[in-house]
Amino acid sequence: MNEIGRLRSLLFAPAVRPDFIAKLPERGADAVVVDCEDATPAGAKDLARQHVREHVPALAEKCKVTVRVNAVASEWFADDINGGVVPEVAAIVVPKIDSVDALNTVSAALEANGLGHIGVIAGIETALGVADARLLLAHERVIAAYFGAEDFIADMGGIRTASNEEVLYARSAVALAARLGGVPLLDQVVTDFRDDDRFIAECAQARAIGYSGKLCIHPGQVALANAAFIPSADEVDRARRLLEVYENATSEGLAAIDFEGQMVDEPLAVQARRIIATADE
């Protein structure tokens, strides 16, 4: 299957808006999504698929492009795979994945349509999806995933708040499942696309618990996500200095050191090495 590569930012555009689709390559996102699901009204699904067929092959020559199909249980899923996915896509984004059976259905549909090389970015955004995330993100068809807070809270019957406290457990559980499954994971949307401060704060929270990127619903969010999910120059500098001191100490038989007032042992050295490796990438 295709490799999806780095995913700091995943930018959505409605499949019914060819004018938006045409501008996707210049937005700077690591990957883009032509959205046949939430951004496409029920009465315009055929038009959305037509636009995918017309625009995505050429778009894929300029940027890493995916298509979000409708949920497996929906009335539109089969037609989406049959007529709304083209071989040039890097992956398909499948929302509301909550069972291995659903992933098997997706896999079989792709194979039946000669699209077996295409992997799935799985949307984990229901109570059952979060509960079974470890099984789902270990599936051979899944090459990346995202956590969808809005749909998750709607399914739970809860209330969305700016604090994100109501999704802390679910957000963390999905991060753990993605780590065990070895797939990159994208964080929830910020629906107020004018609130840069909240977006930046959520990126920091997400990176801290293991997310590799953020869903973007507006072009203005892309640069913020791209910057947030790579180490800063100060982080890299501190990591290099820490490792130099630590490795000198371990060569002399010490397993823990005091570095700038912080006790440092192997787990912190591992984190420093990861920061440097990520920056080098």
Provide an overview of this structure:
The strands form two sheets. This protein has an eight-stranded parallel beta barrel, surrounded by five helices. It is an alpha/beta fold and 281 residues long. It has two domains: 9-228, TIM Barrel (Alpha-Beta Barrel); 233-280, no CATH class. Helix 11 packs across helix 12. The mean pLDDT is 95. The chain is elongated. The chain has helices spanning 18-23, 45-59, 77-83, 100-112, 127-131, 133-136, 149-156, 168-181, 196-208, 222-228, 233-251, 266-280, and strands at residues 9-14, 31-35, 65-68, 91-94, 119-124, 142-147, 185-187, 213-216, 257-259, 262-264.
Protein topology:
Blueprint: E1 9-14, H1 18-23, E2 31-35, H2 45-59, E3 65-68, H3 77-83, E4 91-94, H4 100-112, E5 119-124, H5 127-131, H6 133-136, E6 142-147, H7 149-156, H8 168-181, E7 185-187, H9 196-208, E8 213-216, H10 222-228, H11 233-251, E9 257-259, E10 262-264, H12 266-280
Parallel strand pairs: 1-2, 1-8, 2-3, 3-4, 4-5, 5-6, 6-7, 7-8
Antiparallel strand pairs: 9-10
Note the main attributes of this structure:
TIM Barrel, single chain, eight-stranded parallel barrel, 281 residues, 12 helices, 2 domains, two-stranded antiparallel ribbon, alpha/beta, 10 strands
- Helix proportion range: 40-55%
The name of the CATH architecture of the largest domain is Alpha-Beta Barrel
* Residues in β-strands, percent: 15-25%
* CATH fold annotation of the largest domain: TIM Barrel
Q: In whole angstroms, how far apart are the ends? A: 22 Å
Task: Report the uncertain regions.
Answer: none
Average pLDDT: 95
- The CATH homologous superfamily of the largest domain is named Phosphoenolpyruvate-binding domains
| Total strands | 10
Number of domains: 2
General shape: elongated
Enumerate how many helices there are, as a single number: 12
Query: What is the string of SSEs from the N terminus onward?
Result: EHEHEHEHEHHEHHEHEHHEEH
